[in-house]
User: Fold histidine kinase from Mariniflexile gromovii.
Amino acid sequence: MSFKHIYTSSKTYIVLLLIAIMLLLVTTSMTYRQIMLTQKSAEMVVHTLQVYNALGDLTTHYTKAESEEFREDLIKDKSSNRVFENYKLEGKTILDSLKILTHDSDLQKARIKPLTALLNNLYSQLTNLDLATAQDSQEVLQAKQSYKLKINKTLNEIKSIKNRMLADEKRLMQERKVTYSAHKSLTPSMLLLLAFFALFVFVISFFRIYNNKLKVRKSEAFLKSLLATTDNIVNYYEPVLNGSNEIIDFKILYANDCNRDYLGLEPNDIVGNTVLKVYPLHKSHKELEELIKSFQEKTKVIFDRQIEVDGKQMWFHSLATPLAEGVLVTGRNSTPEEEAKQIELTLKKRLENQNLKLLENRALLTNIFKSISHIVMHFKSIRGNDGKIIDFEILFVNDKISPVTGEMPDNIKSKKLSEVFPNTFKSGVFEHLVNAVEDDKTVEYEVPYNKDGSIQWFSATAIKLGDGVTVTTSDVTEEKEKAEELIKLNETLVIQNSILTDAERIAKTGSFLWYLDTHVSEISDNYYRMLGYEPKEFEPSFEKYREFIHPDDLEAYDKVGAKALKELRSTEHTYRVITKQGAVKYFKTDGQFINKNGSMVMVGVVQDVTQTIEAEENLLKSNLELKNRNAELESFNRVASHDLQEPLRKIQLFALRIQDFEAENFSDKSKEYFGKVIKAVSRMQSLIENLLAYSKINLSKSDFEKIDLNQVLDKVKEDLAASIHNSETKIISDKLPKIKGVTFQMEQLFTNLIANAIKYKSANETPKIQILYSKASASEIPDQNSKGRQQFHKISFIDNGIGFKQEYAEKIFEVFQRLHQKTEYSGTGIGLAICKKIVENHNGYLTAIGTENVGAQFIVYFPAQHE
Assistant:
């Protein structure tokens, strides 16, 4: 094996290498800086030359203005003014160039400002000169001469500024030439120094590497001798890649002699081959993934392997460690440890069998004892917005939790798991519970619990139930002390047996045990009493028990029993028996099959459910009577809807005809009485219609559907548009929720409440109705029966009408109850009763709050879970 792959440089060499790199970087940066300074000096010299050229262009530009020939050209071209415009454009270009070149010099920038003004003044003077030339008079000639003098003065000022700028640039040129010469002479020296330093570093590095190579050879010899004496398998692999640069296997580069001692593989024969081809400790792609994980993630991976070598089972505890360009795998022979575990497991099973023989005096008592001796809890999943489980709600926990945590079960129910047992999120228990729910599989795990400074270990089993998990936990710390506790347990079994007997008597239950192979049966004392016998008065058996079965139920009883024996799975079954005294009783039986000492045994419980069945029969009779009464009510509804309304319609029809034909012959008193008759008939019709509506409100939930109350409100406002418009009522509403219910009942509820508010409006104020919405807890509802619900939709109808006294808050919901005379306000007194019945039909609550001459509030609560 070549150790160049696993060699790591010494700290001294690494430090020297870092120092050398730093020195090289420093010298290189100094040289680079020197070159950049030289380049910058050259650029500054070029920049000064550019300023020289621009000043020269300026000189040429203003010199044209001194030329008589140029002035004549201006005068000749006065029609198009093309020469003058070109001249001005040339001046502007020169000034822009100077501004750019002198932007880094405040002094030069200050001189350019007056220079710009002077050039503009020069252009203006040249223009005036052109105008003066256009006329031929003595005064004009004098003016022309005056303009020329002004032009010359302007030109002299421009020359003065130009000369000062030129003098400054000459001074800068001298300074920059000196700087450039200094930088140019220093650069070659820096380059030569860098070259010598690099050569020195390379020579030192060569000797250092050579010395380390000698050390590696010594270390290689030492490591080979060390690997030859170890008792562990030590191999070194390098990855084998495919065309997509993915690892498909590992190549064995080194294998020590322990491969021959344990696996019968010659190291020289397997070196150069791949692990999947020749190595038994990595014989599948699943095991190869662990090597790939170790190599790619640069982490240690521990795994155990069981293999067969020459017909003998062997176990190896292996450690894969990423090293250089491969993976170093060390395998320790753990066969003696595993064999010891197997022996320990066998002894443990033998001890458990002995314990079962002591504990199984009675199968039913054993099952009950198991349920009592374990901590049983049920948690409901709490999910976040993304659907993932973030916590659990504790729905059930038995009394065995108290000795462990000191908490009573009722104190921790309905609380979150994170509040009661925060350590579950640190110990990994939360992940086990989530896996049980999400993967729908039984998860077993052990968890420690610190109580009063001592550690107790609990073995737990988590089983999914609905969208939650049931956890059964037992204290396994007591296993070491089980031998001593078994003696105490036998003493308490007598007491528990007595308690069980009393419990059977109180609950009217009995228990039985039936050995299927010998047909020997055992039944509890209370079972004898349920059959009308004293305990042990007859020898129990399956055939003997059939004699008690009612003849009409015997065939069904035999079928259920045959099916249970065939499938070895019992189902709950109810049948009749005839006791010793001749009384007929109903028994309900359930049980299970268990294997006891190699024999199949059926254990079960029998309960006397005679009273329950009789109560159910009485309930059926009551339901039948209720159906008959409902039929009578429906018959009354038909009579009310047709037979009662038909005479009223005729009375109303003929009264209106008499009024149309004979009204002129009526006296004033007769007209008043006749009007009262017509109003009474209309009121009677309205009363019958409201009674029908009240009686037809169906309490069934089968026709419930999802309702948007905002749409219901819009429909009601449209139906009541005329009343709202005539009364100038203003309706303000929050955004209302969606609930499950009956659409037409919701429309009737909103119609009655809004129409009621409009009817009982105040004479002094413009009617205003507010419909407010919020969420409310059950504690806010003044009905004790509502405490079991979680949240409600609270919808408040608030008006500014005449209101009412709070003492009448319950009375107004009764049928035919009115707080005002019918001459004051029309109505039948049934509207609010209909509202209350509709709300109750939706499992809701309706309350009223009133203040006389201020207004009224009608508050409706709908359960939120109906959404």
